[in-house]
Design brief:
The structure is a homodimer. Chain A has 11 helices and 13 strands. By secondary structure, chain A is an alpha/beta fold. Chain A starts with a strand and ends with a helix. In chain A, a hairpin with a 5-residue loop joins strand 11 and strand 12. The first copy, chain A, is globular and about 55 Å long. In chain A, the strands form 2 sheets. Chain A has a 9-stranded mixed beta sheet with strand order 5-4-1-8-9-10-11-12-13, with helices on both faces. Chain A has a 4-stranded mixed beta sheet with strand order 3-2-6-7. Chain A has a single domain, classed as 3-Layer(aba) Sandwich (UDP-N-acetylmuramoyl-L-alanine:D-glutamate ligase), CATH 3.40.1190. Chains A and B meet through helix 8, strand 13, helix 10 and helix 11 of A and helix 8, strand 13, helix 10 and helix 11 of B.
């Protein structure tokens, strides 16, 4: 089943202790789309400026990513993010954000996009997420990401969104903020009671937690000795997860847990190089091989 | 098989955001012994002062913990630790340490203790750990804990110890310090190459990692909504792990992984109340019930 994602498309500058790279292909919808494309056709909705290299669009199209929803706005520049990682790669600082075309982003979905059954609202302002949601009344699985900025500035809109989506994906710090609780197990359940049928808390190098009415569990990250650039790991996680769900066409507890695992493995590849440089070198078979190791690791 | 542990026996003051408790039964050897006692008879070696309540000794004896190695030094006071936890219970600050009798601790093991096949050197100065190791030449499995203080102040002795033990258990920050590497996967393997056949890195609420020549894996913590006091979680982990190994009488990869899981579950109970208040309310059957849930959580 095709999967629709709406989110940021960016050019990133990334500083790591080992190396600095500039103008990298990035953005939540980009990482999400690419990770999801191992499993299912993806329809990407986003906006870029006139500085956007056409080769990036062709690169996305070379996978099963439909870019008809990628608006190019002349006379404006692409969203630009600059971040810095410290020796402990879990610590990140945003050095600079140039919203540029994101200020004008008002997605109007093509008709066939509106009929997508699987919808992911990548990190973006809550009002924008609600606008997209309103255009897809027939979606059978809607999952959203959010962040501290929207939790603080659009709490009422977020409360509305939470009542209307099936799943929420957010990181540990954001979950604590939203639930006003430092204990992640309680926080996850509190957020679930705000509306979504399931909540996923991403814990970076420590894996991810899942909460539904009947289940609470945590799966560890795949241990990788090579962490080059963690940018996009969370979006790759969501892409792997949603891509697998769309491929399977159901969201039974068993499928959801497998989807969590695929998300974790997609993220484990993303961090092994800058931008999509590692992901673009792997095939579905590489994900399956790592899945076999991962299952073995967790069985005893 | 009986299991010998040498380590601290303490009276703790613990400040948490919800409550402060003073003069609690604590210490690495105490938490370790109690957690191990679900699996195997334990022989505890430690030292206390004249202020030590005899009821604590009787309490330990009420389980299968042999306290003949617990010296009581008259005219001196028991090791006293005061710690403070913040809203994020993973953040701890040592407020005060009174070494007291620990300054005079020079363990001389009873003859039958020296013949123990399973030995755990709980956190303590490396020279003291080496002294104990020298008294147990026939041990078939020796595992040690260490901490930043000894990594910084006794590096040569620690290098010697690492060449002579089978396993090392330490927390994530200590592993990074010892290996001089911020990536835990690389750090674990680096430390393993310093001598021990296996290394376990404890990650607090995020579980534990295991490293041997042929295996690297990570197991998550059991998700608990009730974290009252994390003190002793790491020592309970080691106690559960070593207790199970001693009970099984082997250290095959399969047994080691099961032991890791029992350690994680012992710790998950410890944090649910102050001191040993939660552990003392459970039976082996409670550990087995949680093990069943834990296995289910990790299988998909």
């Amino acid at each position: 089943m095709p999967l629709l994602v709406v989110g940021s498309v960016a050019l990133d500058d990334v500083e790591t202790p080992a190396e600095t790279r500039e103008n990298l292909l990035g953005g939540s919808a980009v990482y999400f789309s690419y990770a999801a494309s191992y499993f299912t056709p993806v329809r990407l909705v986003g906006v870029v400026g006139e500085d956007w290299p056409a080769e990036h669009t062709r690169f996305l199209q070379s996978r099963q990513i439909d870019t008809r929803g990628l608006q190019v706005i002349q006379g404006a520049k692409t969203f630009h993010w600059r971040g810095k990682y410290f020796a402990d790669m879990n610590q990140r600082q945003t050095v600079d954000v140039q919203l540029n075309v994101m200020n004008q982003f008002d997605p109007v979905l093509p008709d066939d996009f509106r009929r997508c059954k699987y919808l992911f609202l990548a990190n973006g302002s809550t009002d924008l997420q609600l606008k997209v949601l309103g255009q897809c009344p027939g979606a059978s699985l809607t999952v959203a990401d959010t962040m501290d900025l929207w939790i603080r500035t659009q709490p009422d809109l977020l409360a509305d969104l939470l009542r209307r989506i099936d799943g929420l994906v957010l990181n540990d710090g954001e979950a604590k903020l939203l639930a006003k609780d430092e204990n992640l197990v309680r926080a996850g359940n509190t957020i679930r009671q705000m509306g979504p049928r399931f909540v996923v808390i991403k814990k970076g190098e420590h894996g991810a937690m899942f909460f539904s009415k009947h289940e609470t569990y945590v799966l560890p990250a795949y241990p990788t000795a090579k962490v080059v650039d963690p940018t996009g790991a969370g979006d790759s996680f969501a892409g792997g997860m949603m891509g697998y769900l769309a491929e399977q066409g159901d969201f039974e507890p068993k499928t959801l847990k497998e989807a969590m695992a695929y998300g974790i493995l997609a993220a484990s590849f993303t961090v092994e190089d800058f931008s999509l440089d590692r992901l673009k070198k792997i095939e579905r078979a590489d994900l399956e091989r790592r899945m076999e190791e991962y299952r073995k690791m967790l069985s005893f």
